[in-house]
Amino acid sequence: MNQQESIVENASSVLPTGAGQQREGFTSIQAINETVAASSAWVALLRQEMAKSIIGQEHLVERLLVGLLTGGHILLEGLPGLAKTLAVKTLAMAVNTDFQRIQFTPDMLPADIIGTQIYNPKDTAFEVKRGPIFSSLILADEINRAPAKVQSAMLEAMQEKQVTIGDESFTLPELFLVLATQNPIEQEGTYPLPEAQVDRFMLKVVVEYPTMIQERMILDRIDHTDSRIQINPVIGPDDILGARRVVDTIYMDDKIKDYIVSLVCATRDPKTFQLDLKEYIETGASPRATINLKAVSRALAFLAGRGYVTPDDVKSAAMDVMRHRIRISYEAEAEAVTSEDIIRKILDTVPVP
Q1: What's the pLDDT tens digit per position in 1-40?
Q2: Cα–Cα distance, 327 to 78 (Å, whole number)
Q3: 110 near 152, Cβ under 8 Å?
Q4: How far apart are the first and last CA of the chain?
Q5: How far apart, in Å, are the Cα atoms of 161 and each of 97, 139, 169, 176, 219?
Q6: How far, CA to CA in Å, does 28 sit from each of 19, 35, 165, 185, 256?
Q7: Binning pLDDT at 50, 70 and 90, where does residue 55 land?
Q8: 280 secondary structure, DSSP code
Q9: DSSP 308
Q10: Cα 282 off chain centre by
Q11: Per-residue pLDDT for 145 more than 90?
Q12: Confidence at residue 78, expressed as pLDDT on a 0 to 100 scale
């Protein structure tokens, strides 16, 4: 019996009920598969719409869909011109919901994002003017250019899904997702993101150059683009929120849960897993890595049309979930060892169920 058959057999026999998860009606893995197939019909349509303006970058597009399905914020890092901003704007156009692009600058104030209180002389009272953060999809362009006070306001919004204006707190939309970009090479006029804020991003996606074939396709498409490409909305907030509820029901075997915990714990205590990495790791991944690995793995299973998670889903999610949660030591920097190198070593060493 192979790995996948074992998971299906275990799932078919019993579906454990987790707190807050509604699993009534799911009596077998086949039932979950059918539900996933029915609720993921929009995925192919959304990919088609995004392909109208995005050539290649399949990994980036998939991770944006994962963000939609999990509600987890995403940090996109890459050199200028790699379609980071275009991908997020295209996604926003394909989702029938409100969207705001916020261009971060060093002179920005928190009020520019969350809003402020304005005095109304007619009523002789202050009234709240809400800022652009009160939208479902937020493109935080070049987020590392904002000063500390702005980052603090963003931190509250991302973690608590609320903002405070004056002495009053306001709840953000249920479908609230921050998709932030940053340039990894330009340091002038930038502020390194605080570790606490970086940890709030479910995924850190590194955007790579297109291939030669894709580059040629980009060149040819530019010649034929006389007008702006029309992106049609294919889903709305209700579809996304419904899909999230289905994602929460996707079956995950106990062995895969143990595998997730092992991967994260290997970043904190590598010797336990016969890994000689202690001198390279300053601090390991936080418990958010464990929680997010579970969520992202389920989302990847959903995108693949499956009602159960495989170890390959976990391995596929590990790099983007953990690369920004491992702080490397000076020894690692001196030897040009990156957090990605550490994760690859862990994935190659920790036994796969």
Answers
A1: 455 545 545 544 434 444 344 444 344 778 888 888 888 8
A2: 20
A3: yes
A4: 13
A5: 17, 16, 10, 7, 41
A6: 19, 11, 48, 50, 18
A7: confident
A8: G
A9: B
A10: 24
A11: no
A12: 84
C-alpha 241/C-alpha 238 separation (Å) is 5
331-339, Cβ contacts within 8 angstroms, sequence gap of 24 or more? 331/279, 331/280, 332/279, 332/280, 332/281, 335/280, 337/280
Which residues pair with residue 141 across a beta bridge? Answer: 103
316-350-273-204 Cα dihedral, nearest 10 degrees = 0
Angle between helices 311-322 and 287-303 (to 10 degrees): 130
Mean pLDDT for the chain?
84
* Token pair 């001198």 in the structure block, residue: 279
Residues of the chain with CATH 3.40.50.300: 52-220
DSSP state of 236: -
Domain over 52-220 is classified CATH 3.90.850.10: no
Q: What pLDDT score was predicted for residue 186?
A: 63
Q: Give the C-alpha separation, 344 to 190, whole Å.
A: 30
The CATH code of the domain at 3-39+250-349 is 1.10.8.80
Range 216-240 burial, b when 16+ CB lie within 10 A, else e: eeeeeeeeeeeeeeebeebbebebb
Per-residue model confidence (pLDDT) at position 11: 47
User: Which one has a higher pLDDT value, 269 or 80?
Assistant: 269
Q: How far apart are CA 193 and CA 207, in angstroms?
A: 18
User: Which amino acid is present at 312?
Assistant: D
Which helix or strand (DSSP H or E) is residue 303 part of? helix 287-303
All CATH 1.10.8.80 domain ranges in the chain, comma separated: 3-39+250-349
State the Cα–Cα distance between residues 238 and 175, nearest whole angstrom.
Answer: 9
Distance CA 154, CA 164 (A): 11
